[in-house]
Amino acid sequence: MEKHGTRHARPNSSSGDWLSRRHEPYRFMLALAMLGSVLVFLIILVVYLYRRHGANWSEVTLPRIFWLSTAFILASSATLQSAVSAFKREHFLNYRIMLGLTFFLGILFVIMQMIGWGDMIGHGIRMENSPPGSFIFLISGLHIAHILGGLYFLSRAFLEAIRNRKYLDAYIYSVNPPNQLKLSLVTLYWHFVDVLWILLFAFMIYFHRK
């Protein structure tokens, strides 16, 4: 049974600060990975802009279900932020609920994207016969790979939250600097892939107008 009446003072010792600084390279490595992802997508978009002037280029309509998937991914950022807030306020039940909901919304995003692929294929749009369609598949597929990476780490965080569902266990877990860092990194990465999709989707909407 969780207690919310008493707030515990969170450790703020110099040893805790040192431990946090010791793990700062992980933030740097994540930043490098995100930068690398941005560069990869930029290259794809530049190639797309170059290829769209070709003679065999014919714009295609984006699957409508991509809009629904976008709504899911936006909602997942909100639920994850709620989870982080609950974690900091020691509302561990809410933390578990919001973290699980974030994972579920991420799964729905992937499913909606794949349904969108099926819709495109059903309309005869395939990678081998449609240059613009091939870019949609490529952009969406590569982004899904990023989402799957985020879902893996979200699932680990959720399982750890379930294992520490007793209030005392959850509190001890929550004041551990490495655990705080893990949640911070997962949150940063998830918001990154969400914003990345919004930008990619906006790009595709603009350049796939008929």
Automatic annotation (TrEMBL):
What biological processes does GO assign it?
Answer: aerobic electron transport chain
Per UniProt, the keywords (alphabetical) are:
Membrane, Transmembrane, Transmembrane helix
Domain (Heme-copper oxidase subunit III family profile) spans: 1-209
Q: Which residues span the membrane?
A: 28-50, 65-85, 97-115, 135-155, 188-207
Record Pfam families: COX3
Q: Provide the topology term for how it sits in the membrane.
A: Multi-pass membrane protein
Compartments (UniProt record): Cell membrane; Membrane
Instruction: Say if the entry is tagged with keyword Membrane.
Output: yes
UniProt lists the family membership as follows: Belongs to the cytochrome c oxidase subunit 3 family.
Record-given protein name: Cytochrome c oxidase subunit 3
